[in-house]
């Protein structure tokens, strides 16, 4: 359903939009554009946009072994958009945007200018990956993976106001600024607890293990590192002889001084 005015906050997905809300910042032509040969529709490849390294495009292949992976036969023509707010992730052969994203403060928008019914994207793995990337981008997970090494920097996000960390550590103050970074110096299991904006309790756990380079059983060293120091008995007696010689020379000098004193 298309509202007359875009919500002031939250995330909005516009898929094959026939019209545009008044404050969208995107102009959509009245009639869709179709690629055809005679009376038949033909599939035409999509091109890369300006933001090919955008997180939403992670793992999305437009070309596969020289052939185009994502193709469309019709789309909604975007005749203009706010270039200061929107980024073009995919474009049509005519140069018009096919996929736009906006991430500005509380306003987050994704505009896909074509329908799945007039594209082959629904048959490709890029289709679920595209929307999974979009959800992860707009609603970032608390942590990116479930296993880390000691000393790794772990990025923490939240779907609420704060995140509490618990585990093999001293109690920490709740994290309230996001994204934030934490580091664990001891191996073990750690948890991240939070209450979402919708009142749901979420708990994520990770395991922090010993760094891989410390677990290499095939690693060879020239010697073993040990906290204990072997006592060199031979060196001990050498030191005693040195001290004895110093004392003997001292007695000889004293004797000489006494003889000199008596002669005077």
In short:
The chain is of the alpha+beta class. It has two helices and 21 strands. It has helices at 126-138, 233-263; strands at 10-15, 26-28, 33-34, 36-37, 40-41, 44-45, 47-48, 63-64, 67-68, 71-72, 74-75, 78-81, 86-91, 97-104, 107-112, 147-149, 153-156, 164-167, 180-183, 188-195, 201-209.
Question: Based on DSSP secondary structure assignment, what is the total number of beta strands?
Answer: 21
Radius of gyration: 36 Å
Strand adjacency order, main sheet: 1-15-14-13-7
Query: How much strand content do the residues show?
Result: 25-35%
The helix/strand series, from N terminus to C terminus, equals EEEEEEEEEEEEEEEHEEEEEEH
Shape: elongated
Question: What's the structural blueprint in terms of helices and strands?
Answer:
Elements: E1 10-15, E2 26-28, E3 33-34, E4 36-37, E5 40-41, E6 44-45, E7 47-48, E8 63-64, E9 67-68, E10 71-72, E11 74-75, E12 78-81, E13 86-91, E14 97-104, E15 107-112, H1 126-138, E16 147-149, E17 153-156, E18 164-167, E19 180-183, E20 188-195, E21 201-209, H2 233-263
Parallel strand pairs: 1-15, 16-21
Antiparallel strand pairs: 2-12, 3-11, 4-5, 6-10, 7-13, 8-9, 13-14, 14-15, 17-19, 18-20, 20-21
């Amino acid at each position: 359903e298309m509202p007359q005015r875009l919500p002031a906050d939250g995330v909005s997905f516009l898929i094959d939009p026939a019209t545009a809300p008044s404050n969208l910042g995107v102009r959509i032509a009245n009639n869709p554009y179709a690629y055809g040969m005679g009376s038949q529709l033909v599939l035409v490849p999509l091109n890369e946009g300006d933001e090919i390294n955008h997180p939403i495009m992670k793992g999305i292949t437009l070309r596969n072994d020289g052939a185009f992976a994502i193709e469309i036969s019709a789309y909604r023509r975007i005749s203009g958009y706010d270039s200061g707010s929107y980024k073009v992730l995919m474009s049509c052969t005519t140069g018009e945007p096919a996929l736009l994203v906006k991430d500005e403060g509380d306003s987050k928008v994704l505009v896909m200018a074509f329908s799945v019914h007039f594209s082959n994207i629904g048959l490709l793995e890029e289709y679920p990956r595209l929307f999974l990337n979009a959800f992860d981008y707009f609603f970032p997970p608390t942590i990116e993976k479930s296993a880390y090494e000691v000393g790794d920097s772990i990025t923490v996000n939240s779907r609420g106001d704060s995140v509490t960390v618990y585990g093999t550590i001293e109690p920490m103050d709740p994290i309230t600024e996001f994204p934030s970074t934490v580091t664990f110096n001891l191996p073990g299991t750690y948890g991240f607890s939070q209450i979402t904006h919708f009142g749901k309790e979420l708990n994520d756990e990770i395991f922090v293990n010993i760094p891989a380079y410390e677990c290499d059983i095939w690693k060879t060293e020239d010697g073993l590192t040990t906290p204990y120091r072997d006592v060199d008995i031979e060196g001990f007696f050498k030191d005693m002889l040195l001290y004895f010689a110093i004392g003997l020379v001292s007695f000889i000098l004293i004797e000489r001084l006494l003889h000199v004193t008596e002669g005077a």
